[in-house]
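--- STAGE predict ---
source: upstream dedup step, 1 unique chain passed
mode: sequence only
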Amino acid sequence: MRKDIDVVAVGDLNADLILSGDVTPVFGQVEKLIDDATLTMGGSTSIFACGAARLGLRVAFVGKAGCDTIGDFLLDTLAARGIDIAGVRRDAQVKTGLTTVLSRGVDRAMLTYLGTLGVLAFADIDWSMVARARHLHLGSYYMLDALRPEIPRLFAEAHTQGLTVSLDTNYDPTERWAGGIDAALAHVDIFLPNETEAQAIGRGATWQAGMAQLATRVPVVAVKRGGAGATAQRGAEVITTPPIPVTVVDTTGAGDSFNAGFVYGHLAGWSLTHTLAFAVACGSASTRAAGGIESQPTLDEALALVADSSNV
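--- STAGE serialize ---
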């Protein structure tokens, strides 16, 4: 089949309500004021999809949304980015997922209603769309309750149809770091954890030990390290890229924009060093505005950031 889609993004589609300010909520009907409130695209996979499309990749989304106002908002946002939404199923029985984020710039606290995230199932996957893609990316592994047992099967079938596969598990709310992850990783080409996730899933005493262990099972592991930049390992090759200085407004979705940059480099056939630097630029650029997609860079903008950082 003709590969007319660069990336098919499979996973969570939900909204983020971002409340910004140096405020700690207090029960007992205590009212406090915040600095700003933003309703925007949320979900690791959907923010990734928007970032990949912003870079110029041809992107399709496979997921589920409710038949409600938030679902309409999310699909309109994806479509406005040029993303093919034919693979998104609508569910009249379950509301669209929503995350409330209390943002303090470089840190945040989150409360999530899973909604349609938790009911996306293997039967919902549009395989005619997957077959048209070069690469499959999945995010929020631990949030996808119905799909998670079948994710190894999903990845294996994607490989059979000629796709490469990337995975960002995101945080495990149960903190058990299990759920069949080892079986899923057996079919992953690029694993994209942060330090906490690398240490926990790699079962290491440190994130470095966890990354080293994961690199024996996954061809490429790229660990997002926030203000410390990122480190990637492919076989015995280990490289680190420092952060790119930007004025940070909100870190929501920065890791997902990093993922988009890394997958772009992978599909472009770049070296690991160039790919990692480009991914860090994409993640850094996305922190300049509230929300995960508002300041995602274009290809030229990200390349300019890489060039500027190289000249510092």
